[in-house]
Amino acid sequence: xxxxxxxxxxxxxxxxxxxxxxxxxxxxxxxxxxxxxxxxxxxxxxxxxxxxxxxxxxxxxxxxxxxxxxxxxxxxxxxxxxxxxxxxxxxxxxxxxxxxxxxxxxxxxxxxxxxxxxxxxxxxxxxxxxxxxxxxxxxxxxxxxxxxxxxxxxxxxxxxxxxxxxxxxxxxxxxxxxxxxxxxxxxxxxxxxxxxxxxxxxxxxxxxxxxxxxxxxxxxxxxxxxxxxxxxxxxxxxxxxxxxxxxxxxxxxxxxxxxxxxxxxxxxxxxxxxxxxxxxxxxxxxxxxxxxxxxxxxxxxxxxxxxxxxxxxx
Length: 314
Description:
The protein is built from 13 helices and no strands. The chain has a single domain (91-313), classed as MetI-like fold, CATH 1.10.3720.10. By secondary structure, it is mainly α. The protein has helices spanning 2-27, 34-39, 45-54, 61-73, 87-122, 127-141, 144-158, 174-207, 211-218, 223-260, 266-275, 279-307, 309-313.
């Protein structure tokens, strides 16, 4: 098992390196010059170049990337172009609300999507299966921002049950924090759950047609035992894959949810930094999000090895 973990960690390093390169280069394609904006319209060329040197944005793009990568490897993500605050500090301030959203939305999606998929996959073409098909079609067709606005209108404006915006820490004030996070979490989790349910249904329905499942039924095993003990464990590998990939949707969905529900967080920080062309902040935030996504996929790889020892040996 240790060798399996080491191989996966080794494979994650080039992924992070390639991703950092892509993020750095793509940001340079955004029109405009943040240094010129920061210096002001009446700044002299000498002043613009001085600011450019202070921010480490002078020289060729390859020289800039080399300096930035060297700083990152030493734990320095740079400083914001707009206010001079270190990127690390900005990420530490914006991170907790997004972490709280993930801690609520992701388990909610798993608890909703996987059981629905099991109910539909265990009995294909049943009422549960048709209901799941309708739900997934609706969730896939409906953009997440429309769902967020609809939830906001129904539960905050129309019924007045939940706050429309703001953030209160779940760890400091659990009750009020949960009231303020449930709508953003639902807007993200409902879309994620539809994909999880569909893939769980497909994987389980395929396993239910296998000979060993029919043998278990022939030996008199009940439906619940056949599904939970024999079929579901063998259907989990593709479900683990989708669950890991859905974490990427959670990261993108957090951007939309935090803007709609006026929550601080990494998503809101990234959007504002893109609007102001604050390259260091965007680079640092995206690099951290990619590192989290790679870590989740690494955990999924480890879960493969636990669920199916043949994968670990291969």
